[in-house]
DNA sequence: ATTATCTATAGATCTATAGATAATGC
DNA sequence: ATTATCTATAGATCTATAGATAATGC
């Protein structure tokens, strides 16, 4: 890339004292390596059971070096949570505000469900499972929980626009929105126990399921799936 | 389960050195008090973040006294897990084996879902949330996970007997069973964030939802709800 | 000079054991 | 004598800071 004149075979050097364990293969920036390591450990062993030493060591660093990048364990979890909920919320907002007469609420709800499951379960480390850690209830993560509540509101808004739910009384609608949101979170748990089902297939099945759960008859589910998939395509390219 | 028989106006004396903090009001046996305290703390703060001191103190004991009843924190979690999954599994077996021509697979699936949600969310402390702790993946709790897998198999068996699922290919059936099971687990999470929805109403809504998710049309959902509720009544009295 | 890392460690836990103590039971 | 609890504490952590060190950059 930056082939300045002079020594063409630059000694491949990195600033700073070399690592005791040698450089890491995966080529991640140190900060990203710490995030990946922490995500893996938090979701598999739990937050409290994961030590700063375990995180750092897995990222190829010594324990104390972690503090060059994060002020502590809590900051790592906060960064992970923030980074994972943001894309979901952006998409949800785009779908709720979408000025499309051609895509009904059913298709948009389908699209949100599928995209959300893909984002949450798609990565190597099932990042969505972070949302389910009990520790996230702590005061420190209130900001994240607020963003997450906004996401849930988007689910509710889309659901309210569907033909099957339009006739429901308010309390019943709320309950059904809880169930749909709960299904998506439940899917994250499926993936935790058994990483077997490929994420894309699971995402489509979950989106179909969300529509059924919302009360849509089979014909509507099929139509929403077709339109929803198309909608996702246009949103991603546009 | 302390015996309440014997002399009704006994001198109110208890064997053993008195507690430093005085006797507890809630009348639970010490072991049960520890279990209740641990359940509350594990589900709210997480397992790793909960110290033996916090558990004991909340139960009205000093930290070291906990070891009179449990060999350690892990044993407490094991006891809680075992105690909560057992009733669900007993009911599931009864429903799968039920020799009833009058109650179809749909009604039995509905009954299982409703009873499961009631058991998991019904108590004061949302015990079901214990299942979702990442720490449960540890080797120590393999026995519990096996029992839980059996419960999931019961869900799958009932689902396979429904009219909507009977025509599905095997992989598709498996995926749908995952979703139904995931919905029930997701409901536990709903309750964690917001203990607002009354457990009975939530249980009925979740059971209805599970039927919709399984592909049943509205008329079948309604029939299954009626028959399923009746079935639960007979199983509980008989 | 700047940077990324290291080593070493103080201070704060937390767990689990040892042994004392204050009740009742016989 | 038995029981349930207590106090005290050793040993094993774990977190976060201080200060040294080994690279590159200029």
Report the structural category of chain A: mainly alpha
Q: So, CATH architecture of the largest domain in chain A?
A: Orthogonal Bundle
Give the H and E element order of chain A: HHHHHHHHH
Detail the poorly predicted runs of chain A: 1-10
Quickly count the helices of chain A.
Answer: 9
Oligomer: homodimer
Shape of chain A: elongated
Question: What can you tell me about this protein's structure?
Answer:
Two copies of one chain form a homodimer. With 238 residues, chain A is an all-alpha fold. The first copy, chain A, folds into two domains: 30-72, Homeodomain-like (Arc Repressor Mutant, subunit A, Orthogonal Bundle); 84-237, Tetracycline Repressor, domain 2 (Orthogonal Bundle), CATH 1.10.357. The first copy, chain A, is built from nine helices and no strands. In chain A, helix 3 runs antiparallel to helix 4, helix 3 (73-97) runs parallel beside helix 5 and helix 4 packs parallel to helix 7. The longest helix of chain A is centred in the middle third of the chain and has 25 residues, at 73-97. Chain A starts with 29 loop residues before the first helix and ends with a helix. The relative contact order of chain A is 0.12. Residues 1-10 of chain A have low confidence and may be disordered. Chains A and B meet through helix 1, helix 7 and helix 8 of A and helix 1, helix 7 and helix 8 of B. The structure holds a DNA duplex (26 and 26 nucleotides).
